[in-house]
Write a structure and sequence with these properties.
- It is a single chain.
- This protein is an alpha+beta fold.
- 46% of the residues lie in helices and 24% in strands.
- It contains eleven helices and twelve strands.
- The strands form three sheets. A five-stranded antiparallel sheet has the order 2-1-5-4-3, with helices on both faces. A five-stranded mixed sheet has the order 7-9-10-12-11, with helices on one face.
- A hairpin with a 5-residue loop joins β11 and β12.
- α6 runs antiparallel to α7, α7 (152-183) packs parallel to α11 (308-318) and α8 packs parallel to α9 (233-249).
- The chain is elongated and about 90 Å long.
């Protein structure tokens, strides 16, 4: 009994055993955490009294009544992120063939369901993103071919549109390949000791003319002393560049984008602040997904492939760091990237 107790207490899956009168005879800690109840206080109590989850209790009842395995899926909507739990309940039969109780195994599949949703969304989004420029190019080319009497000026306009759409298609494919390279084990970064001050300065200087053309300002705040990290200069430049480009796109005319580089304990911190339109809290945990757009119409209007933030996240993780965001509608956004400082 002690060995069994130790085994059941140590497994990740939740396990609940009840007798033939639906009283709890065992509940491990995992089951208690999943269902939000105390295992100790649940013993010898009817399952419906201690576990206030209707679908779970009905599954136990059906298992005992029908004397067969029952499966169900529980969804807890009250939590910040929806929790999904798979339940497999089996009857327990004694040597005389009489049902003596039931045992239910609970498996939290929330993360798996989330990954499945992300995969579905990615396939749908990438198909749409690729189809849009391809359809446009095809339609434009067919028009040029069919209209033999099209004047030179109009033909050049059509060719310019074809060029723009093909460039967009190329950008999407390039960003997808960048993500694939970062994620793959074989696509190792060219890591070396570098100063983040230089990386940030280069990114800012490359975008000053773009900001000026849009009537916007970039302000950089860099420390006097070098901020040394072990990293890939090109990849980290892409992090700073993507965050700045994103901030400029969603800032109003005469808007201000500020990039701040500081040290915090053993971490280097890059902050990009803007006074733009901001993001609603419900979207914050999804904006780093590939092709995820909060406002699809506006996102395509300002350009971009929808992969910039996903690239930022993966580069940060590949360097042993992380990225997070703080934002509110109408109050702008603050993107923070933390990276481990090089050991001196």
């Amino acid at each position: 009994r002690n060995r069994l107790q130790a085994i059941l207490s140590g497994i990740v899956e939740g396990v609940i055993a009840v007798d033939d009168r639906e009283r709890v005879v065992h509940m491990n800690d995992s089951a208690g955490k999943i269902l939000g109840v105390s295992p100790e206080e649940s013993i010898n109590k009817p399952v419906w009294e201690t576990v206030r989850v209707k679908d779970f209790c009905e599954t136990i009842t059906r298992t005992l009544r029908d004397k067969k395995v029952e499966k169900t899926e529980l969804r807890f909507q009250a939590s910040p992120n929806e929790k999904v739990v798979e339940v497999n309940a089996s009857p327990l039969t004694g040597e005389d063939g009489v049902i003596s109780g039931a045992v239910a195994v609970l498996h939290d599949v929330s993360e798996l369901k989330k990954l499945e949703r992300v995969r579905r969304d990615f396939i749908a989004n990438v198909s749409h993103e690729l189809k849009t420029p391809i359809t446009a190019v095809r339609g434009l080319i067919e028009t040029v071919i069919d209209d033999k009497e099209m004047n030179k000026e109009q033909r050049e306009q059509f060719l310019e549109k074809i060029k723009n759409q093909s460039e967009r298609l190329s950008s999407i494919v390039t960003d997808l390949l960048t993500l694939s390279r970062i994620e793959s084990q074989t696509g190792a970064l060219e890591v070396g000791l570098l100063d983040l001050c230089g990386v940030v300065s280069t990114s800012v200087n490359s975008l000053l003319s773009t900001a000026e053309a849009g009537g916007k300002t970039i302000i950089s705040e860099l420390p006097e002393k070098p901020v040394k990290v072990m990293g890939d200069r090109e990849a980290l430049g892409e992090v700073a560049g993507n965050l700045l480009v994103n901030a400029l796109k969603y800032s109003p005319e005469n808007g201000e984008v500020r990039i701040i580089l500081t040290r915090k304990d053993t971490q280097a911190l890059i902050e990009v602040r803007d006074n733009g339109i901001g993001i609603e809290p419900r979207y914050l945990n999804r904006i780093f997904e590939r092709f995820y757009r909060v406002d699809k119409a506006r996102s395509r209007e300002v350009g971009g492939t929808g992969l910039g933030l996903a690239i930022v996240r993966h580069i940060a993780i590949a360097h042993g760091g992380k990225v997070d965001v703080e934002s509110a509608p109408g109050k702008g956004s603050i993107f923070r990237v933390t990276l481990p400082l090089a050991v001196s």
